[in-house]
């Protein structure tokens, strides 16, 4: 997630080898990653590189919980945050391929029969605009955060919660700013998720599980907090207060964003499964499984809107770029071509995805920490691995 405020919720590569799940030898990144992890003081750090349909390097180091000695493994679940958005966009593409919805379908077309008296400007917003953050729906406002945190969450399933959320916001008129129409909108992805649910007749969570997790064999993938209740069986996220105090956030509501926000960013999975997902994207949909047609994946990957310049961007964050559907399209100063990239954080974890479709290469980095240290460390690893393995 990118903008939800937690107001109480908030080149030396190691020579060792690890055996991949495909039976091939993949290079271990543990030695390199441990040095970065120690430098930046992170609890855990994981990364993987794919090339041409294979995971060629991977590593996971550190502890699942700060202050405890519980080593992480390559199969440990990390949180994806807003990297989930590309999955929502891909599910949308699958439904477009099946004729159940169109990129030009509007909120009113799909949800108007369920949500009455919707502001005409909101009703006219298209699925493509929602997925490209160009609808005029703003970045999380206090009103939206109150909606995410509404007590009705204890009374309804997530599908109904999303309809309820839109119903509570329906009188607002989206406003497209001058210059670039881009506004990073989690609420827009919530709305897109509700449209997909209505079009398919299934919850968003099932759509992602059936159409992405299952076909790609992402056995560690799930939704919500990474760890099981009462167990330290995954790297838990860590909250950092204004004084710098670090608190492990183990289970329950405080360990993630509200479930209603799922389409905007509450997936989790291991670094290896995350790499399998980015590798499928790097291949441009030309190798199995067939989740969407290559043409539809190209539509998801192509730039749809220019992003406005960012003043004083965070380390590793370009000051400007473009946005596709669930993916940023970024010209990094250390890469020849524009790359697909996205960051994800729920305020307690950080995940970075980088995809080079020209080279058929991808890099993923994950940590159970957030903030400037996590961003700097993950950006350093991302660039280092891309430059080391790009050929």
TrEMBL record:
Pfam families: Beta-lactamase. PANTHER family: BETA-LACTAMASE-RELATED DOMAIN-CONTAINING PROTEIN, D-ALANYL-D-ALANINE-CARBOXYPEPTIDASE/ENDOPEPTIDASE AMPH. Keywords: Signal. SUPFAM superfamilies: beta-lactamase/transpeptidase-like. The keyword Protein transport does not apply. It comes from the Bacteria. Residues 30-376 form the Beta-lactamase-related domain. It comes from Acuticoccus sediminis. Residues 1-25 form the signal peptide. This is Methylmalonyl-CoA mutase. The keyword Kinase does not apply. Gene3D superfamilies: DD-peptidase/beta-lactamase superfamily.
């Amino acid at each position: 997630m990118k903008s939800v405020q937690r107001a109480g919720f908030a080149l030396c590569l190691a020579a060792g080898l690890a055996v991949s799940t495909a039976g091939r030898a993949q290079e271990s990144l543990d030695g390199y990653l441990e040095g970065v992890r120690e430098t930046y003081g992170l609890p855990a750090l994981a990364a993987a590189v794919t090339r041409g349909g294979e995971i060629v390097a991977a590593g996971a180091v550190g502890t699942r919980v700060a202050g405890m000695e519980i080593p992480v493994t390559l199969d440990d679940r990390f949180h994806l945050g807003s990297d989930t958005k590309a999955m929502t966009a891909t599910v949308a593409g699958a439904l477009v391929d099946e004729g159940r919805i169109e990129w030009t379908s509007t909120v009113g077309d799909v949800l108007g029969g369920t949500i009455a008296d919707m502001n005409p400007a909101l009703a006219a917003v298209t699925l493509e605009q929602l997925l490209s953050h160009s609808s005029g729906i703003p970045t999380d406002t206090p009103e939206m955060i109150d909606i995410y945190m509404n007590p009705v969450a204890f009374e309804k399933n997530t599908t109904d919660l999303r309809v309820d959320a839109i119903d509570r916001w329906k009188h607002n008129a989206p406003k497209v700013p001058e210059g670039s129409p881009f506004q990073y909108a989690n609420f827009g992805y919530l709305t897109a998720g509700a449209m997909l649910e209505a079009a398919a007749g299934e919850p968003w969570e099932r759509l992602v599980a059936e159409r992405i997790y299952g076909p790609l064999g992402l056995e560690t993938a799930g939704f919500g907090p990474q760890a099981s209740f009462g167990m330290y069986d995954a790297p838990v996220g860590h909250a950092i207060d204004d004084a710098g105090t670090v608190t492990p956030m183990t289970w329950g509501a405080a360990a993630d964003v509200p479930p209603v926000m799922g389409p905007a960013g509450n997936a989790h999975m291991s670094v290896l499964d995350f790499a399998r997902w980015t590798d499928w994207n790097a291949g441009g949909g030309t190798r199995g499984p067939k989740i969407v047609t290559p043409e539809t994946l190209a539509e998801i990957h192509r730039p749809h809107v220019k992003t406005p310049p960012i003043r004083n961007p965070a380390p590793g964050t370009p000051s400007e770029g473009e946005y596709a559907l669930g993916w940023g399209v970024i010209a990094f100063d250390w890469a020849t071509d524009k790359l697909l990239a996205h960051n994800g954080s729920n305020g307690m974890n950080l995940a970075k995805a980088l995809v080079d479709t020209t080279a058929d290469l991808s890099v993923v980095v994950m940590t159970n920490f957030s903030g400037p240290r996590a961003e700097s460390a993950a950006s350093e690893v991302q660039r280092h691995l891309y430059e080391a393995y790009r050929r």
